[in-house]
Write a structure and sequence with these properties.
Layout (H helix, E strand, L loop, with lengths): L7 H9 L33 E7 L5 E3 L12 E3 L9 E6 L2 E6 L5 E4 L10 E4 L9 E6 L2 E6 L5 E4 L10 E4 L9 E5 L11 H4 L24 E4 L17 H7 L5 E4 L2 E4 L4 E3 L11 E5 L5 E4 L12 E3 L4 E4 L2 E3 L6 E3 L5 E3 L2 E3 L6 E3 L16 E3 L2 E3 L12 E3 L8 E3 L2 E3 L6 E2 L13 E3 L2 E3 L18 E2 L10 E3 L2 E3 L6 E2 L8 E3 L2 E3 L6 E2 L5 E4 L2 E3 L13 E2 L22 E5 L5 E5 L2 E3 L2
Parallel strand pairs: 13-14, 14-17, 15-18, 16-19, 17-20, 18-21, 19-22, 20-23, 21-24, 22-25, 23-26, 24-27, 25-28, 26-29, 27-30, 28-31, 29-32, 30-33, 31-34, 32-35, 33-36, 34-37, 35-38, 36-39, 37-40, 38-41, 39-42, 41-43
Antiparallel strand pairs: 1-4, 1-12, 2-3, 4-5, 6-7, 8-9, 10-11, 44-45, 45-46
Length: 585
């Protein structure tokens, strides 16, 4: 398996058509990156994605692009505030923070040479989402420190200068006033202060036991931020000091707006539905996000096991769901019936059917409206278990699925049935091709507490059903120690693309294809402990780049011995290790 930790956004632009310059959004608009951490603001006018003048807290001068130059490599300075384009900066969520782009030239603030040294120039660079172009906002009194993600150093004037024309550099963060900045909206209205310590404290332990079953946008939409907490009330303003409920926020948020959920456990008895029509737009997604540094847990333990008792239903379009844990739903933890949605950094666990499933909203949904162009990225599914022991998978896109759905950098493990399931059946016919890439599946058929069920299929990646041909794309994935096959066609006679995949010590076959003309390249099959497993069975086109198991390991297997480990990197890509040594996906 040739491992490439390529940049996330360029790949998604190519694979899912999620825009050049207006990729999936979080907070106001996610432009230039998909993997985001939403940074805190205060109340509705708080600093967040949007356009600002950035004013030094000591000298009162504005961050400035000298000469309004459009060329890369121009070092920024501070100058008297004029409100012109060369002093207007657009914050967009990117990686672990924000990109900060000049309205004059569209280039991004970054540290020259990606240096981590104090005193290094801060200049405008071509926006590429790299860590040296990502900045976090840290509350500093009534202002913010702008901290470079790559270096951990603060935006500062050279020599702590307060004179017009002083160049801007990075320096170690401390309480020096020139290292703090006020963000004033481009319209000239000052932002409120960063949240106080008391306002930022975690909310109480449990929310109301139920919410309305369906949330459609009503009234005047809020295009800034709304805050939800376990002690929020429906009629509250939705500020940090007066948080509202999720049910209320879903009806009030407008395109480009963000709902921040504070940490804590939210106990729900009814499904939370983002209803059709409660939509964002391609350039202004609606966002439902964990508050930075906190983990909201949506707990549906009060539900009984029933196919209509889902946890969170995303039936609208152009939403970005970020950083939530959804558990104990009576059916799917998250059900995606809408299109053009991004589901990122979620955990779906202990649900009584598949953790996250993409399928049509209901039986009346026209095939032209089947969910399409959804991306599930950097997410985890485990311990999903139904009472029959044969339905609960980690991630599914099955039965009724439109084009363009992608699973990327996801981890599915220890589910009672399969890791990833793309099942089709005769009643509803073929689904559109699904892409699964740079993802991991292991220990399917055995829960983390050791529980097993005889009925489960226990495959790592199950790619079909009912002999219906669909040309799925399965690339750069790893299947380890699953209870049956690692990768199986599951009667799909289509011409699938199966490349750069690794399958190790699965109980039956590592790769299992009996019909179709799928194309296999650079695939690797290894056995270290499950030596009584069956040889791989292939139907389609293989070549000398493949190393399938026929009784011995190929040369590439040496890289995959040792205990499996994994983690998500700061930019969201999946890091997999064997014996402590990273491999490339």
């Amino acid at each position: 398996m040739k491992l490439r930790h390529n940049a996330v956004l360029p790949h998604l632009r190519r694979r899912t058509r999620l825009l050049a310059g207006t990729a999936a959004a979080a907070a106001a608009t996610l432009v230039g990156a998909l993997l985001v951490v939403i940074l805190p603001g205060a109340a509705v006018a708080a600093a967040g994605p949007g356009s600002y003048t950035i004013v030094n807290a000591d000298g009162g001068l504005c961050l400035d692009l000298p000469g309004a130059g459009a060329a890369g490599g121009v070092q920024v300075d501070v100058s008297g505030c004029t409100g012109s384009a060369n002093q207007t900066w657009t914050l967009t969520t990117s990686g672990s923070g924000y990109s900060i782009a000049s309205s004059a030239g569209g280039l991004c603030l970054g540290v020259a040479g990606a240096s981590t040294s104090a005193g290094k120039a801060v200049e405008q660079l071509a926006c590429d989402g790299s860590a040296n172009e990502q900045w976090t906002l840290t509350a500093s009194g009534s202002a913010y420190q702008l901290v470079d993600v790559n270096s951990g150093k603060c935006l500062n004037t050279s020599g702590n200068g307060t004179s017009a024309g002083t160049l801007v550099v990075q320096n170690s963060c401390d309480t020096t006033a020139t290292k703090s900045w006020n963000l004033d909206s481009a319209s000239g209205t000052s932002t409120t202060s960063p949240p106080s310590a008391s306002a930022s404290a975690s909310a109480s332990a449990s929310a109301s036991a139920s919410v309305s079953a369906s949330a459609s946008a009503t009234g005047s939409p809020v295009t800034g931020a709304l805050y939800v907490a376990t002690n929020g009330t429906d009629g509250a303003a939705g500020t940090l000091a007066a948080p509202t409920t999720l049910a209320s926020a879903l009806t009030r948020i407008g395109a480009g707006g963000t709902i921040y959920m504070r940490g804590g456990t939210y106990d729900y008895a009814s499904t939370i539905t983002i209803a059709p029509g409660n939509d964002g737009t391609a350039s202004a997604l609606k966002t439902l996000s964990a508050y930075p540094g906190e983990t909201p847990v949506l707990d549906f333990s009060a539900q009984t096991e029933l196919s209509t008792n889902r946890g969170l239903q995303v039936n609208a379009t152009y939403w970005h769901i970020y950083g939530l844990v959804v558990q104990h739903a009576g059916d799917n933890g998250i059900a995606v019936g809408g299109s053009h949605n991004t589901i990122e950094r979620v955990v779906v666990r202990d649900n009584r059917d598949t953790g996250l499933q993409i399928s049509r909203i209901d039986s009346t949904t026209a095939q032209s409206d089947w969910p399409s162009d959804n991306v599930v990225i950097s997410s985890e599914a485990y311990d999903n278990d139904d009472s029959t022991g044969e339905n609960a998978d980690g991630f599914d896109a099955k039965l009724t699925v439109g084009p363009g759905n992608v699973f990327m950098y996801d981890v599915s493990h220890n589910n009672i049935d399969d890791g990833y399931d793309l099942f089709t059946k005769t009643d509803t016919g073929a689904i559109s091709p699904v892409t699964i890439e740079y993802s991991l599946s292991y220990d399917q058929g055995t829960l983390t507490d050791g529980t097993q069920a005889a009925n489960g299929d226990k495959n790592g990646f199950k790619l079909g059903g009912d002999k219906i041909a669909v040309n799925h794309i399965v690339e750069h994935d790893i299947a380890v120690d699953n209870g049956h096959d690692g990768f199986t066609y599951n009667s799909n006679p289509g011409d699938m693309t199966v490349s750069d995949d690794v399958s190790i010590d699965n109980a039956e076959r590592n790769f299992h294809w009996e019909t179709g003309d799928s194309i296999f390249t650079d695939d690797t099959s290894c056995r270290f402990t499950v030596l009584d497993g069956t040889n791989d069975k292939l139907s389609g086109q293989t070549d000398s780049t493949d190393q399938f198991w026929t009784g011995t390991n190929g040369s590439r297997c040496a890289a995959y011995s040792g205990a499996l480990g994994w983690s998500f990197a700061s930019d969201g890509h999946l890091v997999v290790t064997f014996g402590g040594t990273p491999v490339t996906l």
